[in-house]
Amino acid sequence: MKEITCEELKALAEGTYVLIDIRDEGLCSYGMIPGAVNIPRGELEYSSELLKSAEDKKLIFYCEIGRLSRDLDDLLQGVDTDECYSLEGGYVGYVRAGINNETDIEEKKKKAEDSIKKKFHKQLFSPFAKACKTYKLISEGDHIAVCISGGKDSMLMAKLFQEIKLHRQVEFDLTFLVMDPGYNPENRALIESNARALGIPVTIFESTIFDTVDTIDKNPCYLCARMRRGYLYSKAKELGCNKIALGHHFDDVIETILMGMLHSGQVQTMMPKLHSTNFEGMELIRPLYLVRESDICAWRDYNDLHFLQCACHFTDTCTTCHEDGTTSSMRLETKKLIAQLKKVNPFVEFNIFKSVENVNLDTVIEYKKNGIRHNFLDEY
Q1: Is pTM beyond 0.85 here?
Q2: In this structure, are residues 154 and 317 in contact, taking their beta carbons and an 8 Å threshold?
Q3: What angle do CA 319, 297, 268 make, to 5 degrees?
Q4: What's the pLDDT at 318?
Q5: Which domain holds residue 234?
Q6: Which of 53, 239, 296, 359 has its CA 20 to 30 A from that of 143?
Q7: Comparing 366 with 82, which gets the higher pLDDT?
Q8: The domain that contains 302 carries what CATH number?
Q9: How many structural domains are present in the chain?
Q10: What is the number of other CB atoms lying within 10 angstroms of the CB of residue 176?
Q11: How far apart are CA 219 and CA 98, in angstroms?
């Protein structure tokens, strides 16, 4: 299939083309090119009538980094492929093309920072600061490694840390840490471009995690997540940090609670902070613990920012990645379930969150403490 560049796309007159995103729902939820319609690659052969109805218009397909969209001819039965194009560089290429101008970069940085101070102060900074105070996440003299994966959550977390540091209530140091476990060049370049556009001075180090998990058939994403956590701890400690900060938010917390009950038969939560069991003196903190994902998305969209869902080299085909190693399909299913429950009970999200703060051990049949099981019959 012929390719079209992002510059050529922007030069086309409105109404002369149809832009088609062939990625799956999980990837599209993290951002689409404005005006695009989503027809997942696996559904293209069943959408020929729809595509043929776009007569006299160019059909421009894009995936994540421009590889899968180049090879669609066999899936476009009955469609005039002479008027079909693949967007060079895909979604990532489009995003990068929009953050190369120095003037635009400075304006984007200022707008993002101003929106945290003003428009989204109540939705983002206030719950961030509340979590830091409530759970005592930041202490005097801390050196925190802010771990940046390239997604919306960790990028916002970095900006919120920069903002709270300006308040000078406690003195602490920050290192904005990015690990490259074997990214595609396109994905690493996007992380670097976004960090530059937002004024985040990242420290990048490399590992070979992706090569290690390449041959793993069962739960490669779980193994990848565990290994990434270990590498981040190790590098952070080497740099003199005593804490690593991860970008899990309120929605991650309540989804984890519900997933544990429905899929693992256990009641547990994602803790706001944890002592490392393998790296003495190191601690993990989650300062976005009280921040809602919808507010993060609103901040992202208001500032016209585009981030990666997962920057691994399986990006075009892998849709199972999540920072805690769970599959995105299971998490997406849980997210939809909570949305359905919210239609009946608008307080359901808050109630799920509060449920692990209001555990009544007198009504629990069995529980574990420090790895030891306790049964209600022990003291009955």
Answers
A1: no
A2: no
A3: 65
A4: 45
A5: 102-332
A6: 296
A7: 366
A8: 3.40.50.620
A9: 2
A10: 22
A11: 35
Tokens 């003291």 found at: 379
Residue 358: count of CB within 10 angstroms of its CB: 7
Specify whether the CB–CB gap between 74 and 47 falls below 8 A: no
Record the tokens describing residue 31, joined without a space.
């951002």
AA identity, residue 158: A
Produce one character per residue of 89-116: b if its CB has 16 or more CB atoms within 10 Å, e if not.
bbbbbbbbbbbeeeeebeebbeebbebb
Task: Specify the pLDDT at position 258.
Answer: 95
CB 331 within 8 A of CB 259: yes
Nearest residue to 237 via CA among 276, 291, 199 = 276
Number of residues that make up the chain: 380
291 in Cβ contact with 154 (< 8 Å) = no
* Alpha-carbon separation of residue 333 from 51, 256, 327, 338, 343 (angstroms): 29, 12, 10, 9, 16
Separation of alpha carbons 358 and 272, rounded Å = 16
Q: What is the CB neighbour count within 10 angstroms for residue 317?
A: 13
Q: How far is CA 189 from the centre of its chain?
A: 17
- Give the pair of three-digit tokens for residue 205: 């180090």
Residue whose pair of structure tokens reads 């809602």 in the numeric block: 292
The mean pLDDT value of the chain amounts to: 87
User: Under 8 Å CB-to-CB from 371, ≥6 apart: which residues?
Assistant: none
- Residues 128, 42 within the same domain: no
